[in-house]
Amino acid sequence: MKTVEFALTKGDFIQLSQLLKVVNVAANGAEAGIMVDDGVVRLNGALESRKRAKIRVGDVVEVLDYRIYVK
Predict the structure, then answer these.
(1) CATH of domain 2-70
(2) What is the structure's pLDDT at 9?
(3) 27-66 CB burial, b ≥16 within 10 A, e <16
C-alpha cells in the first residue's frame, strides 16, 4: 500500500472528492465520484459513501492501494 501525507492548509476541511484529485489518486472529480460510488473508499476504517464528506486533520482515507494521512 502506498502512503501519502496531505497537509491541510486552507480551512479546516477538504471534501473527499477534492482530496482524491489533489493527491492524484483520481484524475478528476468524476473519477473520484465513481470510486466513492463503487465502494472502494474508506474513511477512518469505515466504508464512505459521501463524495463531499468533510475530511479533517487526523483522518485517514484508504482507496485502492493508497492510504492518505491528513495532517
Answers:
(1) 3.10.290.10
(2) 86
(3) eeeeebbebbeeeebebeeeebeebebebeeebebbbeeb
